[in-house]
């Protein structure tokens, strides 16, 4: 005769703890495809939402541009005057005092083109560090793709760049530059440069939202980057005269700002024929645009739920 063990008696408390009654509110929200407020959508859905806000991005950029110098007597003229004044200062210091113009043909067009292009790149990086932090009220009050904020900054600065590019064309005429088919190469250069800057803006917007003190550090970083980008002098001339380490020479040649500045100079200035520009420079520019454009967008999207917290 064998002993039998009675099945354990279920604990009513445990049963009640394990059993979860269906939440009618959650079921209703799921039935109507409602999601948690501020939750990060999938990447394709996020792109679709951002595309749906494209008119908001454009309107916000235009409003910012109009308001930027609204209190100044010259108004929007400062968009053009500021880079011209910078070019004049750089010409006096580097072109005349430091003789950086020696060995550089058409130095004034060379300098002005570099200043205008750098002004766009540097401004995108610097302004985007505060893109989220300076709009916390908007971020906390409304639900929209947060990437709209750094992208509207880039659109605003790109609108200003188009104004300065028109002035640049007039200045090139004044300095004896003749229009040619090479000038059309400025269009793909602008597109690649804008893609690169959009990615940089989204990276710096996320970093600035997490660490607001970054905006205080950026002017020093950008000043160093500008000096390494060949804005005021020719990198090629410097590499011919200075025996720099190989890694330094490679870094200067691959510097994305220097690459975009070179592409614009070879497109617009007669002394820098586009046919003389190595073809791999276009591949480098495309690589920077894709790396930062796509990578920066994904990097910003990853933190979509974090913006506005705290």
What key attributes describe this structure?
elongated; 0% strand; 14 helices; mainly alpha; 310 residues
How many structural units, i.e. domains?
Answer: 1
Distance between the termini: 70 Å
- How many strand units? 0
Which residues form runs of ≥5 with pLDDT under 50?
A: none
Q: What is the H-and-E element order?
A: HHHHHHHHHHHHHH
Average pLDDT number: 84
Percent in helix: 55-70%
Strand content: under 5%
Number of helices: 14
Secondary structural class: mainly alpha
**Largest sheet properties:** none
Quaternary arrangement of the chains shown? single chain
| Coarse shape | elongated
Radius of gyration: 27 Å
Explain how this protein is built.
66% of the residues lie in helices and 0% in strands. The chain has 310 residues and is an all-alpha fold. The chain has one domain (54-302). Helix 6 (107-128) packs antiparallel against helix 10, helix 8 packs antiparallel against helix 9 and helix 13 crosses helix 14 (280-302).
Gist?
The protein has about 300 residues and is mainly alpha-helical.
Blueprint of the fold:
Elements: H1 12-18, H2 24-31, H3 43-52, H4 54-68, H5 78-97, H6 107-128, H7 136-141, H8 148-174, H9 186-210, H10 214-227, H11 235-241, H12 246-254, H13 256-268, H14 280-302
Helix pairs in contact: 4-8, 5-6, 6-8, 6-9, 6-10, 6-13, 8-9, 9-13, 9-14, 13-14
